[in-house]
Amino acid sequence: MSGLEILVLGGGGREHALAWRLSRDERVARVRIAPGNGGTPAVAETVADLDPLDPSAVARHASRERYDVVVVGPEAPLAAGVSDALDQAGINVFGPTREAARLESSKAYAKRQMRRAGVPTAQARAFTDLDAAIAHATAEDAAGRRLVVKADGLAGGKGVAVPDSLDATHEAIRSLMAGPDGGQILLEERLTGREVSAFALVSGPMVVPLAAACDYKRLGDGDLGPNTGGMGAYAPVPWFGAEALDAVTASVFEPVAWLMARDAVGYRGVLYAGLILTEDQGPMVLEFNARFGDPEAQVVLPMLEGDLAAALLGVATGDRGAMEGSLGTRRGTAVGVVVASEGYPDAPVTARSLDGAEPSSSADDGELLVFHAATQRTPSGYETSGGRVVTFVGRGSDLVAAREAAYRGVAACELVGGQYRSDIAERELADQSESV
Ligand code: AMP
Ligand code: GLY
Fold it and tell me: Pairing with 261, which of 219, 240, 384, 392 sits 20 to 30 Å away (CA)?
């Protein structure tokens, strides 16, 4: 069999990591990417002028090029129906249809499916009427219960408020109802516990647990500041190992995959469960995403051994043997630290020069990996083009070594106004020293 030809859609750090990892597989002949970023030419050929949000353009291009599989990175092309168009064109695609991707694109839909499948999740009610939502929040507050306010649709990490007072709850309801989702919001019971992102490969009713990682969503050290798309991550998670992932596969991934398959909306791709580990009720789902996390992918993918391309193709074609295939986990730990632009997340300052962040190429497999996101290449070097600019991923035999490698990368990075967290994976070190 000749080598696999793969198209990756997307242009973030996740897609640089995906293309890097796929390009290292022995059976892969060529990886192309659209739109990619300033760093991805080190791992994949850029397809010029292909809009990943245009389903028919993607399907036309993919038919012409006869890719073995198209791997969709971000949520927006899924919600735009790119997978549906590729299905119609008979192209293998790793990524759910628009209908199945509603597990991410509509929180109300995800809640309904979880209830039907018996998946543990926070209680929630959907509202489109402002007065009814305000009244519900007031009554819950009087009963001593705290709420989380969520916009129904995709909001790029900005659709969730975790207010600490009734006034702030009311304000969040008003502002999220004024958002672009036709005003639908969810008022959800507030849970407490450690959070973890769990990933499984799903193809119809077939589920293969993949990995878990911890993400740091707040902008600042000590979990202060606004929510972001994610400022850093580490994997594996010492307190959420293979057994915990298997348990969540049985309680979350399989019931949802089976329900969707039974409803003939078979899910296909990676399913990401954002979990909170509650003391009294165990792991509960906060949200589903229809894709790899970013920056979780940047730490999960470098820790996977085996033939990733074959596994993703197996998901696309419904081949269980290939899905389970050869994937394993490397020993050691990966820690990823994101460097973001000044002003991120509200108003990132762009077009600044970026130095000391040479993007990882397919040949790189060392202790420091550098995945670009919002960058572009100019004649004089790299320039920023958005909020999250680059993820430095350190790998080491333990957390200390991995952190050191990642922060060595960050220290060498030159970006005026660049923001990063200095405490990624630090709490694990504190935990470890306590347990010694
Ligand atoms: P989500 O986009 O649903 O993952 O929400 C973003 C963040 O808000 C999560 O990572 C949690 O920190 C927080 N959050 C969401 N839902 C809840 C909940 N029911 N209880 C407590 N915190 C939550
Ligand atoms: N890092 C969180 C996400 O990708 O949604």
Answer: 240
Task: Return the closest-CA partner of residue 150 out of 131, 126, 132, 180.
Answer: 126
Give the ligand at the shortest distance from the Cα of 160: 1
Closest CA to 121 of 111, 133, 130, 129: 111
Fold of 333-436: Glycinamide Ribonucleotide Synthetase; Chain A, domain 4 (3.90.600)
Q: List, chain by chain if needed, residues with CB within 6 Å of any ligand 2 atom.
A: 215, 229-230, 289, 293-294, 296
CATH number (3.40.630.30, 3.40.47.10, 3.30.1490.20, 3.30.1330.90) of 124-189 reads 3.30.1490.20
> Would you state the pLDDT for residue 181?
58
pTM of the model: 0.95
Peptide bond into 226 cis (omega under 30): no
Ligand 1 mean position, distance from CA 160 (Å): 7
Q: Which helix (H) or strand (E) holds 271?
A: strand 268-278
Side-chain-facing half-sphere of 153: CA atoms under 13 Å:
12
Model pLDDT for residues 78-87, shown as the tens digit of each residue: 999 999 999 9
Stated as kind and residue range, the H or E segment containing 150 is: strand 147-151
CA torsion sign for 97, 188, 165, 181 is positive
At 313 the three-state DSSP class reads helix
Distance 289 CA to ligand 2 centre (A): 8
Q: Please name the residues in contact with 304: beta carbons below 8 A apart, sequence gap of 6 or more.
A: 21, 210, 211, 327, 328, 329, 330
Give the strands of the sheet with 124-127, arranged side by side: 124-127, 185-189, 147-151, 160-161
